[in-house]
Amino acid sequence: MSEKPITRRTALKAAGTVGLAGIAGCSGTSSSNSDSSGSTDSLTAAFLYESEVGEVGWDRAHEDARQAVDDEFDWLETRFSEAVDSSDVKRVMEEYITGGTDVIFGTTFGFMDPMTELSPEYPDTVFEHCSGFKTTDNMGRYYGRLYQARYLCGVAAGLLTESNRLGYVGAFPIPELVRQINAFVLGAQSVNPDVTASVRWTNAWLDPPTVTQAVNTLINDGADVINNHQTSTAAVQTAAENDAYAFTYTTSMADAGGEFYGSSAVFDWEEFYKPTLQSVRDGEWEPDAYWKGLESGVIDIDDFGPQVSNDIVSEVDTQKEEIISGERSVWEGSQFEGKSDEFLFSQMGSYVEGIEGEVPSS
């Protein structure tokens, strides 16, 4: 055995279809499997969540996808840790790595800097970070163009509103959220140019009492459609209790919205995790910047609520197909038309016309 251990991923690239059981043993990792296609090796992947996994929300969407890929691949073993604080994420990752984990998925923005700092210390571990803007030689980043689904929800909202006033509860004033708020309002204005909107910021991903207060304020100010960027059902439930249409994101929250549920801009992370893990196993993984939209299936919109008419659904479907085909751009006619992906992803910091006030400094 050489003094420098041969890791699974390095061996895959060098060996092609040769059996790797002996090499895996030298590297101190678990033994490999071989299947009839000639692919060899098994993988272990760990998923790190910032909050406890509930029935809905951000972490639920990732956990559903983890379970799906775990069921899909017999050569894959997955693990997860929930309620991981950003200050503790390095320790948690190192425990997984020293335990033989091959791939680490950090599923929240706050894990970006710790992963960026740690990844060079473990060059044969694959790191993937969700929603951030940094990469290293062995750390990729991934997100979906959720603003496209937010836009489509906006189309429905623009046709549902009677007051022509929308309300939005945001978490933190970062480009990701500003981008989605703008897209939602632009979607509404595409079918109803009289629409205006107001935003309330909570400075927290999970703070149901503050969210409830923010929704009530927006409704008292005249909004009859509410959208939000929170990982609980508080905004949806509060809107519905006030007979305001409720839109949300990440997963369906139809039960919380009841008769006043609009829809949700949803993620299907299996569409990313499945090919990514397959590429690691095949020795073809690269640390790229994944940012795909409706055409990929990684993002979509949920089924609409009971008060959304067939005519509204038809209009949304039409615009959805136009976005997928490239006939329609979410940003057409706004100050962001023609802006680069780099700008859209990491630099958007102002509202489109029709949204009151200014984006606060983060």
UniProtKB/TrEMBL annotation:
Keyword presence, Signal: yes
Pfam family, one: Bmp
GO-annotated cellular components: plasma membrane
Residues of the ABC transporter substrate-binding protein PnrA-like domain: 44-330
Signal peptide: none
Keyword tags: Lipoprotein, Signal
Superkingdom of this protein's organism: Archaea
PANTHER family from the UniProt entry: ABC TRANSPORTER SUBSTRATE-BINDING PROTEIN
Protein name: ABC-type transport system, periplasmic component/surface lipoprotein
Organism per entry: Haloquadratum walsbyi J07HQW1
